[in-house]
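Checklist before submission:
- one chain only
- standard amino acids only
- sequence pasted in full

Submission:
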Amino acid sequence: MISMRSIATSVLLLSLCGCLVGPNYKRPQVTTPDQYRGLAPSTATPQTATETFGQMKWWTVFQDKVLDDLIREALTNNYDIRIAATRVEQARDIVGITHADQLPSVSAGGGIQQVRSALNPGGPTFDTLFVQAQYIVDFWGQFRRATEAAKANLLATEYGQNVVRTTLVSDLASAYFLLRQYDTQLDYSQKTLLADQDMLKLNTIKYQGGESAKTDVLQAQLLVEQSEAQIVSLNQLIEQQENAISTLLGRNPGPINRGFSLVEQPHMPEIPAGLPSTLLQQRPDVRQAEMFLVSANANVGVAKAAFFPQFSLTGQFGAQSTSITSFLQGPATFWSLGGQALQPIYEGGRIRANYKLAWAKRDEAELSYKQSVQLAVADVSNSLVGYAQSQKFRAKIQEQTETYYETARLANVRFNGGATSFLEVLVTQQQYFESQLALARAWNEELQSYVQLYRALGGGWEL
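Returned file contents:
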């Protein structure tokens, strides 16, 4: 008779002699440049800063307290964030389910059987209790590889949550800056409307006194109507933008608090971008792509293990008696132990096709990972160029606006002195007003580029 000790010894030997089939993961070689294209000359040398722009916390990057409060609220209440958190919990539960395959399953049962017949009408009633266990020895590492894949998917889901977080931070900052652009343009429009109304009153008085033509009144009226139309349009855009921000906050549509004005928003003129190789650790989407590769690599081992025999062990212990008092005594107890090996012989090519499929998915995941690195480097380079050029563009529009202001002022002086017609005032005032609106857009574009660069460098997900 086989003893319990010999069975336990056999199980231990099988476990110790087991192996992990399939490739062990090794990070693929990726080519990254020594530095980003688009770096300002003063930052093109190796960085000496202790942390890069992407490693800075979002509340140090965006120093408007109202914006920081909005971001904190969004990170708590935004539905995309909350959905991502549930996905992490799901992935964690899947790890637990998958890991359970490495452990034996134990179940218990019992029953009552009453025996009666014509020859034995007073037959006995049998009471039975039993415990049974089943264990599939993970000799080839099939279950361990599956657990490895599940853990990698869990990490990928956590990095996916970080992608949602950094996206939300950047989207909210972008939406807030756009709202401040509309506020600035509305302020310009309201001030321009007051000036235009004063000019209309003056021209009307001159016309009534016979000092100017009717056309001067009509042209002044055009300036008023232009400003009024712009105010109506901006009020619409402001309310719609507030609604969009409310959605990001997980609120119903409503008003949004304001902090610094558009031109007062603190932002760094030069960015410590760091080295491109740091993106492999800083960008959550790159790390997520790598975890998908780790998972696909482990699944190759799962598929390969299907070629080999599977060893299973079963055991049962129980007791049967016609009386409760005789349980666990003498011949009333029973037990059984058994082992089985199952080797697949013919599956119609299913096992081999599944193995080839696992390799194909692994190759796809590796290419996706390498592509994510390349796209991340390009994203940062484009953002660096965009931020540097947006600063220059805003400065030029600012100079242009100052020139238009002086041109409009002189035209008004010439008109009041009778040296020119009101048409010149009309044209220069329109140019100055449009340049003011363009300057607000330029400030916003500079801040949008600032946000995009922070996101491209992987910033915003670390709390």
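Reviewer check: The radius of gyration is 37 Å.
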